[in-house]
Write a structure and sequence with these properties.
Blueprint lengths: L1 H35 L2 E10 L4 E13 L3 E3 L5 H7 L2 H23 L8 E5 L2 H4 L4 H12 L6 E6 H5 L2 H14 L2 E7 L7 H5 L4 E4 L1 H4 L6 H17 L2 E4 L5 H9 L4 E2 L10 H9 L5
Parallel strand pairs: 2-4, 4-5, 5-6, 6-7, 7-8, 8-9
Antiparallel strand pairs: 1-2, 1-9, 2-3
Helix pairs in contact: 3-5, 3-12, 5-7
The structure holds ligand C2E and calcium ion (3 copies).
Subcellular location: Cell membrane
Organism: Pseudodesulfovibrio mercurii
Protein name: Diguanylate cyclase/phosphodiesterase with PAS/PAC sensor(S)
Length: 283
């Protein structure tokens, strides 16, 4: 029995060893990826329901790994946060997406600089850093994008982990003129008090509430409540992860104005968005 235990321990140990090696290799790769800019940004359209038009995009990062192919953010963002590489990655996405959306504004001939918008995800870890406002300001200057067209997406927990720091940083961002968007609304903090405390402009209702909204009465009640709360507070509400016509019917009936999800569009490459916008020229 003793022998068996020992060999089991060895096997277990080797597995842990392999996992640690894999993680180290991934970290080395990720560092190199930042240096070589191995990232691609894809864009998921946000649709205005009244017109069925694309009114903006969420920028979503992809890692083009030389051996493993395309890696989604779910597989590297937490490592990027642990290693501090997230600052560079978020910043890369920010710069590229601002420049890209400015290009698309020109392509469709918008007359108001805030007309075609872009949403950028900022990690909670990055959000707490004093350099953020400077980076956003530079990305706006370099791209010529109007601050009005930029929505900064953060999660509830990013705000509530350190509310005093968050308050300072949000004020800096508001001074720049960008909009603040709460991502994954309803999944994080159990209190709504932060909606009152912080200068929030947009709320994205998490996909987990949308998924059963055509059948489940509790989901319906939650989404209805968020809509009426949002309306009375003057917030813009976006429904995330809309996949079916049943979900869409409920949302339209409840007066939802903006949706994002596979029902209309998946995240798209720059070339695919170019084609899409060709059909939406304003002039
Ligand atoms: P998120 O911010 O909640 O982004 C929405 C995610 O839901 C995206 O996954 C999108 O592809 C997916 N999605 C959109 N519509 C649907 C739908 O109808 N059905 C389903 N099942 N999924 C849908 P993605 O691109 O894999 O991103 C995952 C997460 O990674 C994001 O969640 C965000 O938290 C993070 N992320 C992505 N890009 C960045 C970035 O540049 N910086 C940071 N810090 N995080 C990022
Ligand atoms: Ca997001
Ligand atoms: Ca989300
Ligand atoms: Ca999320």
């Amino acid at each position: 029995a003793k022998e068996l235990g020992k060999s089991r321990f060895k096997v277990f140990n080797r597995k842990m060893h392999d996992q640690a090696l894999q993680l180290m290799e991934l970290e080395t790769d990720l560092r190199r990826a930042v240096d070589l800019r191995e990232f691609e940004v894809v864009y998921q359209p946000i649709v205005e329901l009244a017109t069925r038009r694309v009114c903006g995009f969420e920028a979503l990062v992809r890692w083009r790994h030389p051996e493993h192919g395309i890696i989604g953010p779910g597989d590297f963002i937490s490592l990027a946060e642990d290693t501090g590489l997230i600052y560079a990655i978020d910043n890369l996405v920010l710069e590229e997406a601002c420049a890209q959306v400015r290009r698309w504004q020109t392509l469709v001939g918008v007359t108001d600089g805030g007309e075609l918008t872009v949403n950028i995800n900022i990690s909670g870890k990055h959000f707490g850093q004093s350099m953020l406002a400077g980076q956003i300001s530079r990305a706006l200057d370099d791209s010529g994008l109007s601050a009005d067209a930029l929505n900064i997406e953060i999660t509830e927990s990013a705000l509530m982990d350190n509310p005093n720091v968050a308050e300072d940083i949000l004020q800096q961002l508001k001074d720049l003129g960008v909009h603040i968007c709460i991502d994954d609304f309803g999944t994080g903090y159990s209190s709504l008090s932060y909606l009152q405390r912080f200068p929030i402009d947009v709320v994205k209702v998490d996909r987990s509430f949308i998924v059963a909204v055509d059948t489940d009465q509790d989901s319906q009640a939650i989404v209805r409540t968020v809509f009426s709360l949002g309306e009375s507070m003057g917030l813009k509400i976006v429904a995330e992860g809309v996949e079916t016509s049943g979900q869409l019917e409920f949302l339209e009936r409840e007066g939802c104005r903006f949706v994002q999800g596979y029902f209309f569009y998946k995240p798209m490459s720059v070339a695919d968005v170019d084609h899409l916008l060709e059909g939406q020229r304003r002039v």
